[in-house]
């Protein structure tokens, strides 16, 4: 299994959904709800889109944990990747959030589920930095290459380089920070709208890095291990083509397969040659989520990947014990019988 593509994800099923007015100032991807559409209708449409994504991922053989959110004061809770990331070896990071009304998206029950169902060694919580006005919004602010251990990061209010350096020291990543702007000179608010790094393919809007030298360095670092780089245009970024994520699923007969999860809008924006390049290593799974995209994020933002080893469930432990006992008979007092005497 690739270290890059998790086989398990966390989704948040937000019963009340609306684009967050507190994030509109620097999120150029947000859009208004259609005129005359009620909050209830918007929420119902978003719920249907969340369920469609969960169903599509399960159909592709991805393990999906869904947490309900009935709190009406968390408009962006559908985007958990901004406050949480998990890492091989049993490590979890919790992040400082820029918008004050997003900070209570962090959920104790999610962390407890991870500790009970997966092997968690340490949780490193950076959220105490929020009063100092420094933020690093998880795998929205950073696009992580888990194979080469690189954290690609577009500088912004939501990606403080001091916190980035601290994260990279704690989790053993190489920081690769750069400026990224659109054609109007507006800084990119989250790196994951312009970049997606998979095992053998990456999609990246390199043209949005104005420093030509830095752009070349990013391209070289992405491709150093033979990874193919699919260059996105700003127009495709506007369609959320960069906001995709590679996952590891299973075929119905149990064979491993890699998928690239993205929105249907993002898939429609890709050229045939770009699709062909992606499909050399991944199957594209596209889901239509137009209501959720009004909030300025897409499929990648909705997914918190689980890069942790799973603990065996009770029935699996019982089966393992029974298998051991079958192979190694025991005496009535619980001692193993030597195989030669069994």
TrEMBL record:
Keywords: Transferase. Coiled coil: none annotated. InterPro entries: Amdntrnsf_FN0238. Gene3D superfamilies: L-arginine/glycine Amidinotransferase, Chain A (3.75.10.10). GO terms for molecular function: transferase activity. It holds the Pfam family DDAH_eukar. NCBIfam families: citrull_CtlX (NF046062). This is Amidinotransferase.
